[in-house]
Design a protein that fits this description.
This protein has about 675 residues and is of the alpha+beta class. Helix 9 (about 450-460) links the parallel strand 19 and strand 20 (about 475-480). Mean pLDDT is about 75; it is low at about 1-70, about 130-140 and about 150-195.
């Protein structure tokens, strides 16, 4: 994976004039800088003279450092400075020549507000477009108490050069000085690159051409398999990301929710945060620890065994609920046939195989079992801003080019400075959060088969080999599962709370526990409180039903069993219109979506894979929810839920609560 301080792309600034400082005469520079004590200084000298304590400085941080922005994508720069001041963007090549990139005659120097992100270009005539790599230059942003460049003087001279290219910084930039300054003394601000939504608000999306019909007189599934085998290579070893009929497991800790005003008598380590979950604590029953007041001992109060402590805490009047830290697993696995990566097959071939979005393999319209995605796009219009969709999973691959342009970033956090700049309780969470390792890097360590990348690419993406579901989303990655697809209740709580607190309107949970024989009321209390907190922040949770073939009438699967006004539980449908054998069923399952042989990007590159599971069904519902929110940004989670459940396409004998398959066109047509 690339370092956070590297670019793999460069910028073409159109109609932007530059000042190569190394090529200008002293007289030229005297007319282009602000005099200090009557002495004309070049930009670097002026910075040194005006900042003897070097209190203002911004170092470059790329948009996660490993995002591959497709060439031709319009981008912009975001600057966040801890101190107020004026911005000057400069570049230094390997020979030490300094070039002033900004301000320019279209974007005069503007004063930055402390801790507030500022974006440029702000004017429509000043554009930046990603280009292929060119050269190697360090690019940095300087923030000073007064402008380095006199905009009026700059306008007279900056007419000779219109185009510059920038790439940087090099791998050793952490220790590179610019203009003789000591990087170790510089301040706390960041400069980042992000994509810009170029489609005008209210504009319709560009529809892909419908795949050619594969009508055959035989059954639709046979027709599809014939086409699918044309794309597939040799059968691969099946990759399993789920436990099927195994019993629920937990680790050696307990998740304990205290009642209000009992923190002074609490055992264990606090989880942090606000609301109910400021009272969540993690308790290790094996350790005989005192409570926060020092007046009680865990073992003296309840006993020494795990079960004794669990029973004792649940009987304690200070405790709302105590439950084992149950383990969750992801819910998908690779199909027996694995499509080969590009460019062995054309993009159009993969589109033809995406039967879930537009299914040409049918004998009549009544048999056309897709989710009416093209019909939904005909109704859809670009929103004011993208909808944030959190993918709680194994993490994602930031080096996947399909996802790069749509990844969420935290504009109030400064990367890798070890400080919680925005005060949200998470340090350096610029790109999302890793609840497994407890840091701000939610990268999936599995480069080629990332469950989280696969799920995220189904929901959204730009320029890949497949069509993503939702046109205008930002993907917020939250790592709550390890590379093998295992996580815990503790990580679920932290992940949902982080996503909701950071603006996610949709939260995708493609994981769950194996079925229990009987309900667990204590666990339900915890999950209901967690989901209620997410709903209070406007978040809808889409939950995979489970791959256990279980009937909700005789067994209980969490978190799918907890059905609230802001949850949708999703089962998996086959192309023949049947509930998949592996899919859980019954009254706990709200709807179905396609979950058989679903094609998406599974790893770091542009290759594709095909996977089965309710993990693959849930992202279609998450994408539909995001599309609805884009059209109706004031809708509550309950309204989005109702729009999806009340417009399903009914399928006879389908054993789920709504009785139907999601219908994106019908849902988008609902007012």
């Amino acid at each position: 994976m690339l370092r956070p301080d590297r670019f793999r792309f460069c910028l073409l600034l159109l109609a932007v004039a530059t000042l190569p400082a190394s090529a200008q005469s002293g007289a030229d520079r005297a007319g282009l800088v602000v005099p200090v004590a009557g002495v004309a200084l070049d930009p670097v000298d002026l910075l040194r003279a005006e900042n003897p304590e070097q209190a203002f400085e911004v170092t470059l941080e790329s948009a996660d450092g490993s995002t591959l922005v497709p060439e031709g994508t319009e981008i912009r720069v975001r600057v966040t400075s801890e101190r107020a001041g004026f911005l000057t963007l400069v570049a230094m090549d390997e020979e030490g020549a300094v070039t002033v990139l900004y301000p320019n005659r279209f974007a005069p120097s503007a004063r930055l507000t402390a801790a507030e992100p500022t974006f440029f270009p702000a004017a429509s005539e000043f554009r930046m477009v990603a280009r292929a790599p060119f050269g190697r230059e360090v690019m940095k942003a300087l923030v000073t108490p007064m402008p380095l460049i006199d905009p009026a003087a700059a306008a007279r001279v900056f007419l000779s050069s219109r185009v510059i290219r920038v790439e940087g910084p090099p791998p050793t930039d952490a220790g590179t000085a610019l203009g003789g300054l000591d990087p170790g003394a510089w301040g706390t601000a960041s400069l980042a690159i992000e994509t810009v939504q170029t489609r005008a608000v209210g504009a319709p999306p560009v529809l892909p051409p419908p795949p050619p019909s594969a009508y055959r007189p035989q059954a639709p599934l046979s027709a599809w398999e014939e086409r699918y085998e044309d794309l597939a290579g040799a059968p691969a070893e099946v990759k399993t990301w789920s436990q099927f009929r195994a019993a629920p497991t937990h680790d050696s800790t307990l998740v304990v929710v205290q009642r209000p005003s009992t923190g002074w008598r609490s055992f264990g380590r606090p989880a942090g945060g606000g609301g109910l979950f400021s009272r969540v604590r993690y308790v290790a029953p094996a350790a005989d620890a005192p409570d926060a007041s020092g007046t009680r001992s865990l073992h003296r109060s309840f006993g020494a065994s795990f079960d004794d402590v669990l029973e004792g805490l649940n009987a304690d009047p200070d405790v709302l609920a105590a439950v084992p830290n149950y383990q969750f697993t992801s819910l998908g696995w690779r199909s027996a046939l694995q499509p080969v990566p590009q460019p062995a097959a054309a993009v159009a071939d993969y589109w033809e195989a995406q039967w879930a979005l537009h299914n040409p393999f049918f004998r009549s319209e009544a048999e056309r079992l897709d989710i009416a995605w093209r019909g939904a796009l005909e109704r859809y219009r670009a929103p004011d801003r993208p909808v944030v969709v959190a993918v709680l999973d194994t993490g994602i691959r930031f080096d996947n080019p399909h996802l790069g342009p749509i990844l969420w970033r935290n504009p109030r956090e400064i990367a890798e400075n070890g400080i919680d700049d925005d005060g949200n309780g998470f340090v350096d969470d610029v790109r999302g959060w890793d609840a497994i390792d407890g840091d701000g890097d939610p990268t999936d360590p599995s480069a080629e088969e990332s469950h989280g990348t696969f799920v995220a690419s189904q929901i959204g993406g730009v320029g890949g080999a497949i069509q993503a579901m939702a046109p205008d989303v930002q993907i917020l990655p939250v790592r709550v599962l390890d590379a093998e697809g295992r996580g815990s209740l503790r990580q679920l709580i932290e992940g949902v709370r982080y996503a909701a607190q950071n603006g996610a309107r949709v939260i995708n949970l493609s994981f769950g526990m194996p079925p229990m024989d009987t309900p667990n009321p204590r666990l339900e209390q915890v999950l209901e409180a967690l989901f209620a907190e997410a709903e209070s922040r406007g978040a809808l949770l889409v939950i995979a039903a489970g791959n256990h073939g279980a009937d909700a009438r005789t067994s209980v699967t969490y978190p799918a069993h907890v059905r609230t006004t802001n949850t949708i539980t999703t089962g998996a449908l086959t192309m023949t219109g049947e509930l998949a054998d592996f899919s859980n069923r019954g009254p706990d399952v709200d709807v179905v979506a396609p979950g058989q042989a679903i094609i998406s990007h599974p790893g770091r590159g542009s290759g594709v894979g095909a996977f089965d599971g309710t993990s693959m069904a849930a992202p279609f519902v998450s994408g539909l929810a995001a599309m609805l929110i884009a059209q109706h940004p004031t809708w509550t989670p309950a309204q989005v839920r109702a729009a999806i459940l009340e417009t399903v396409r009914q399928i006879p004998d389908l054993d789920v609560a709504s009785g139907g398959l999601i219908d994106a066109a019908a849902a988008l047509g609902r007012e």
